[in-house]
User: What shape does this take?
Amino acid sequence: MHVIGGTASTALAERVSRELSNAPFGIPFTKRFPDGEMYVRVGGRLEGEDVVVVQSTRTDQDLLELILLEDAVREAGARHVYVVVPYFGYARQDRRFFPGEPVSARALCRHVELGADAVVTVDLHSAQTLTQFTKPAYEASGIPAIARLLRERPVDLLVSPDRGGTERVRRMAQLLGKPWFALDKKRIDSEHVELKIPADLPQGIEGKHLVLVDDVITTGGTIAEAAKLLKKHRAGAISAACTHGLFLRDAFERIKAVTDDVYATDTLGNAAEKASVAPDIADILREHFPSG
Ligand code: R5P
Assistant: This one.
């Protein structure tokens, strides 16, 4: 198995190749034509090989590069092309909210899978998006990676900032053998939320080390509000952990100001990247595509 790291996911792709018993790893040559169009070229002997292309699609440019890479790898004679999209952009528009809108997540699934034999992604915004692929598609979770990290750190209680994240926090709690609870969240607009401690909280939080667990941190509004609320209720220390750290604008600083630590996985390169999902992606590749 060969691993190619697109420009959005070079470091993670290299970690995946190491996890696959040091599978040959390469990065494509990329440049821009004078008219601004993108050019990519892959190297190495890919003929007859199973090739894994790793590329998060945070920006439209990342997405275009992925589509070109899939085609380049196929042209180079790869036997199978497995596409790993650690952060799958456009996944939030997973249904038509208003007439005239697209189901962007579905549209992207269809385009990403076009040049691929199978797709692997990590913590999609909603699980049903996986069913939009018509080819084999698998979802890794960022939870085990964060749990491996938290095992080395003091943790008393895990907290989901909303009830929608209950399954996630429950899974983390199980891996760490710690209790958990979920806050009640009401979204006011894309940047503001209202949070409440649930009335049926089984135990106090005073003096405890709490870890907020979320799938994605975007503007940081949710985590910052949650941390302020928990502090008001006398939490001892607060950490924030997520799979995908988008950290738009000043989100990272905003969260740092009200927490003791911020942890993210390496699906997107950022300052909080402290846990790797490479072993979890490699497990899926080994299990479903055993030539590696
Ligand atoms: C909500 O469904 C998600 O799990 C996150 O809580 C949310 O997307 C975080 O967004 P922000 O950082 O902008 O509050």
User: Anything to note?
Assistant: Residues 2-142+277-288 form a domain with the Rossmann fold fold (CATH 3.40.50.2020). The chain is about 30% helix and 25% strand. The helical segments are 10-19, 60-75, 104-113, 143-150, 166-176, 221-232, 251-256, 278-288. The first strand starts at residue 2 and ends at 5.
